[in-house]
Amino acid sequence: MNHKLKAILTVLSTAMLIGCGKAPVDDCAPVEIHRFDIAAYRYASADSADRQALRDTFAVALRIMLGNDINDSSLTAYSQSRGVRVFTPDIESRFLSLDSIEAVTGCIYSRMGDEFPDITPPEIYSAVITYNQSIILADTVMLLGLNHYLGCDYEGYKHLDGYRRATKTAARLPYDIAESIIATAYPYRPSNDATVLSRLLYEGALVKAVMQLVPGSDIATALGYDKSQLTWLVDNEAPAWNALIERKMLYSTDMEIASRLTATAPHTTLLHPQSPGRAGRYIGLRIIESYMKSHPEVTLRQMLDSTFYNSASPLIGSGYNPSRR
Q1: By three-state DSSP, how is residue 268 classified?
Q2: Count of C-beta atoms within a 10 Å radius of residue 315
Q3: Nearest 10 degrees: CA dihedral of 8, 9, 14, 17?
Q4: Which residue, 275, 166, 160, is CA-closest to 229?
């Protein structure tokens, strides 16, 4: 396969992976993602004038990556670091263009203006982030670590557990962008006597907000599941709920239990050995969706407020009980 054809196929596959292969559902302007990743990779081979121009153009991103000590030597060291040298060529081959991501992000930002007018959408810079986190959000600037989205089959991810590799795809990008912004603007703020239910309600409201912002979203991708994992949860929703009740976890104030129900993991063993990880998020989402059906006047902003999720009232008002279905 020649290089030109491979490039075309890469762009098309990226578009389909993030849900842009079909007509957009919103009429919105794309959001530019500044290619700091490519510029940093080429820094060491640039002449002095181009180096200065790069330092000026990407000063904001550089401060996040390197701190306040931004100079020629520190940026040269970053440019020649192992992570940048290893990942950037693969980023260039798999993300020849960010047009599709920019288009989806434009729709996210447009919807965010309606649902969360209090949030200032960040300026986005693509980068190589060698930490475990794929996104760094500082004030109104976001660094998007494209090295975390090279595909579950990527050679560099082979050392990772399967459940972690499964989320390292381009399909996750819009969801992670939206969740990073919403979770930063509305972090979980438990009360002094917060229960596991409080955390489930917050996580459910957060996932629902992300789904509202990402055009063409689906529940499986929003939760980080494949079809078989979502099917398991749908089929076992009532037993999982019963396990929460019978094992007296729902109103427990032990935040370690809440974390184990919602943290990234291969399985949610507190509910069932075969339950997909973060199953508490699915249950929280189901409660929130039930509540929204009977309370359509309540906004996502209200549900992400601590006075909402630190109360047992939303569960009561939702009428949620999968055992009755």
Answers
A1: coil
A2: 18
A3: 150
A4: 275
Sign of CA dihedral 321, 227, 27, 173: positive
| Residue 1 pLDDT grade (very low, low, confident, very high; cuts 50, 70, 90) | very low
Q: DSSP class of residue 136?
A: E
Distance CA 161, CA 198 (A): 30
Amino acid occupying residue 77 = A
Residues 96/11, Cβ–Cβ less than 8 Å: yes
Full strand arrangement of the beta sheet holding 141-145? 33-34, 123-127, 141-145, 135-138
Rounded distance between C-alpha atoms, residue 16 and residue 10, angstroms: 10
Pair 206, 314: CB distance under 8 Å: no
Q: Residue 95 in contact with residue 13, Cβ under 8 Å?
A: no
Q: What does the domain layout of the chain look like in residue ranges?
A: 3-185, 196-324
**Spatial contact of 179 and 206, defined as CB atoms under 8 Å apart:** yes
- Residue-wise pLDDT for 96-142, tens only, equals 999 999 999 999 999 999 999 999 999 999 999 988 899 999 989 99
Torsion of CA 243, 244, 245, 248, to 10 degrees: 110
Tell me the sheet residues that pair with 138: 141
DSSP 276: B
Residue whose entry in the numeric block shows the structure tokens 């919602």:
262
Q: Is residue 102 within 8 Å of residue 10, measured between CB atoms?
A: no
Q: Rounded distance, CA 62 to CA 64, Å? A: 5
User: What pLDDT sits at residue 88?
Assistant: 97
Asked if residue 60 lies in contact with residue 67, where contact means CB atoms within 8 angstroms, the answer is no
Q: Do 140 and 122 form a contact (C-beta atoms < 8 A)?
A: yes
Instruction: Give the 3-state secondary structure of residue 267.
Output: strand
pLDDT of residue 36: 96
Amino acid letter, residue 57? T
Q: How far apart are CA 116 and CA 182, in angstroms?
A: 9
Phi, psi angles (nearest 5°) of residue 36: -65, -30
